[in-house]
Amino acid sequence: MSAGPESRAWPAEGLARVPYWIYQDEDVYRREQERIYRGDAWNFLGLEAELPEKGDFKTTFVGEMPVVVTRDEKGALNCFENRCAHRGALLCLKDRGNVKEIACVYHNWTYDLRGNLTAVAFRRGVQGKGGMPADAEPESQAPQKFRVEIFCGLIFATLSDKTPPVERYVGPEVAVRIRRVMKEPVKILGGYTQVLQSNWKLYFENVKDTYHASLLHLFFSTFRLNRLEQKGGVVVGGEGGSHASFTMMKSDQSGDEYEKAGMRSASGGYALQAPQMLESVDEIGDGVTLQILTVFPGFVLQQIMNCLAVRQVLPKGVGRTELVWTVFGYESDDEKMAELRLKQSNLVGPAGYISLEDGAATGFVQRGAAGASERSSFVEMGGRTVESNESRVTETSVRGLWQQYRRHMSL
Amino acid sequence: MDAELQLAVENLLARYVHAIDDDRLEDWPGFFVEKGRYRITTAENYERGLPLSIIYADSRAMLRDRVSALRHANIYEAQRYRHTVSSTLIERIDAHSARATSNFQVVRIMHTGDSMLFAGGRYLDRIRLDGNDPRFEEKLVVLDSRSVDTLLAIPL
């Protein structure tokens, strides 16, 4: 048996150490469900564009809790637990669809699109026989309803009425960086799920860890595509668990820059034969070619050149995580831009040139630290505190994650 | 049924999967015509008409880049595949091309000894029939599941 969180003490060094039991203990995992996912955090559920019509629904998860997200007959978005008040069966079995009401298949109890129980089959019995007592209150076991907020077309939900509005939760500097990507109506290009053999926090740290990017992911350096002088930075927002890191390539990049680079590197090493894939367009107009942004506990927004995506991080047990990717463009995209986004999608996902390694790296930590629950990882790159930084050779946003996490978990 | 065509296509599919399973990835682009298209997507994207791919190439050059990245840039644990392809249905389009639909399954064998059913689905192929040397004009790999375990490095 592993020790409970009460008997576990965070290392005295504070945010500069992360104890390995945090990725391993069942008790920690259970407490996260209660304190974080079902507590006062904003859970990302998807893009508003996934549910364009009245009656559209999708099923997803808040932590381990199954939920239904609907657009009701008034056009508002709702989220409620995917659990029937009667015996606890799943209400919606499909991933997505369009309905007028929701009926549990088990005993046909029905619900409206806001999750209200509207009818109980044979409530008054049949021909005066059977049925429920007159004072029965099956509504007392109704599925839990979430508070939903749409921020820039992103759907967030929380069970707490104390969670501050999304914009305040992520902080102004992160909010402005959500806005720059979600600047206009989006068009969904597709999705897939990547199963990670690691604790969810190892993936969330990985996304926040700007230090590893050029060391683990060798695609750009191998093909000598990152010789351009790059500027960037990291901003940490809210209670520390939200962040944005960004890279600016020098603006003298003309359309054939990568092609020339590919030809130049042909003489000295490896070269891409079809580098046109990397001819990106500065469509937002601020010179930022790469931005990775997170919102605690499970949201990632990505702009890698012209490849835009959201990732939903779902815990599936202590050592297993699902990463739900949705790649999108803008409704205003012409054919050429749509094609460029699809080509650049080769950079991301389970087969992504610059993200393939992340699927494995978090598993290496889960496996590597299997016998070291009392030891800690060492997180002092860029100091021991949490602050925004112009250098990306820092672990400041990783420490920010633990700052917010420990507050939720009272650890 | 056109037995000669059936044999030619099944032979192409067999040579294709053996090249991948034998780690002869450098031979992989050669199974395509110069402007051949290769895509891996999920049944969900395919059925919803969504264009996103897990891998997308529209030329042999892009396939060669994929191999080059796998050999020299990308980092992943040692692993092999074992493909099984079956139930190939073939429809002739004209004298020079045919469509083929096959089922496939891939077992992934990790260096640790762990084997798992890694992927299953359909190959939807359009094949250029040039004499004794048929090649893929388009190979669309439709995964039955929307989930991929850890990473997909080696092509399917």
What's the structural domain tally of chain A? 2
What's the story with the biggest beta sheet of chain A? Answer: 7 strands, antiparallel
- What CATH architecture label of chain B applies? Roll
Low-pLDDT segments, ≥5 res of chain A:
251-255, 263-268
Total count of strands of chain B: 7
Q: Describe the sheet with the most strands of chain B.
A: 6 strands, mixed
Q: State the assembly state of the protein chains.
A: heterodimer
Which class do the helix and strand fractions of chain A yield?
A: alpha+beta
How are the elements arranged and paired?
The complex is a heterodimer of chains A (about 400) and B (about 160).
Chain A: E1 17-19, H1 26-40, E2 43-47, E3 56-62, E4 65-71, E5 77-81, E6 96-98, E7 102-103, E8 110-111, E9 117-119, E10 147-151, E11 154-158, H2 166-170, H3 172-181, E12 186-196, H4 200-208, H5 213-216, H6 219-222, E13 230-237, E14 242-249, H7 257-268, E15 288-295, E16 299-304, E17 307-315, E18 321-330, H8 335-344, H9 356-368, E19 376-378, H10 396-409
Antiparallel strand pairs in A: 1-19, 2-11, 3-4, 3-6, 4-5, 7-8, 8-9, 10-11, 12-18, 13-14, 14-15, 15-16, 16-17, 17-18
Chain B: H1 3-21, E1 32-42, H2 43-47, E2 55-57, H3 60-72, E3 79-94, E4 97-110, E5 115-128, E6 135-143, E7 147-149
Parallel strand pairs in B: 1-6
Antiparallel strand pairs in B: 1-2, 3-4, 4-5, 5-6
Short account of what is shown:
The complex is a heterodimer of chains A (411) and B (156). By secondary structure, chain A is α+β, with helices and mostly antiparallel strands.
